[in-house]
Amino acid sequence: MADDGPFFETFDATAARISQSHLAAKLNQGPRDDAGRFRITKGTSSLATPEEKRAEENRERGVTLVDPTKAVSLHTVKRAADAPREREKTKKAKKEKKDGDDADDDAGPPSWLSLGLVVKILDKSSAHRKRKGVVRKLPRKGVAELEVLGVDAAATETVAEKHLETVLPAVGKHVRVVKGEAAGRVGELRKIHETRFLAEVALDAADGVRQRVEFLQYDEVCKVQGLS
């Protein structure tokens, strides 16, 4: 019995009871059948942590989890020799896009712009917004290079057709028809019907003697510089 002394001195009965109670509580959390008896599943333990249970289930299904910290990137670093080739592809794509845009412009409705027209600038980003200008050049369809009027120094600006508006002169002055069947013909502005938003224009007939009166929308006629 002398040899039992050190054992009893180090044995903690309270800790042992707590450990047994903890083990019993863990076992009581396990699955049971209809009779209340424990149901033991092969390969699993009621004492296993949720992570361990999921790992066991994945192993049974043949699923292998990869540690994201050890994953290998599938992206490869582009070589310096590939840079000129990439630039050439980008340049070619931009050219094809521009050619496509030009083709779309050609396929769209005809432009009403022509040289000498006096138009109003509506572009909100323009420093000359709401000023008038004279069409001096047509670099491409739907775009006009204007000589801006009413500024101290000579100024020019290139503006898209969609940001321009026709201008009506005073009654008795000449206008050019810019839309419709009579587009391109010149006539005299006889009257402005404000309630109907129509311009009464007298167009020269084909024989140059008679005149034909047309009632046109405001955006169908425009003032022309140099014509009295």
Automatic annotation (TrEMBL):
| Chain intervals for the UniProt region annotation (Disordered) | 24-109
Query: Which residue numbers delimit the Kin17 KOW domain?
Result: 169-224
Which GO annotations describe the biological process of this protein? DNA damage response; DNA replication
Give residue spans, biased composition: Basic and acidic residues.
Answer: 50-62, 79-89
GO MF terms here are: double-stranded DNA binding
* Superkingdom as given in the UniProt entry: Eukaryota
What's in the GO CC field? nucleus
Where does this protein come from, organism-wise? Micromonas pusilla (strain CCMP1545)
Q: One short Pfam family name for this protein?
A: SH3_KIN17_C
User: Could you tell me what this protein is called?
Assistant: Predicted protein
Q: Which InterPro entries match?
A: KIN17-like (IPR037321), KOW_KIN17 (IPR041995), Rib_uL2_dom2 (IPR014722)
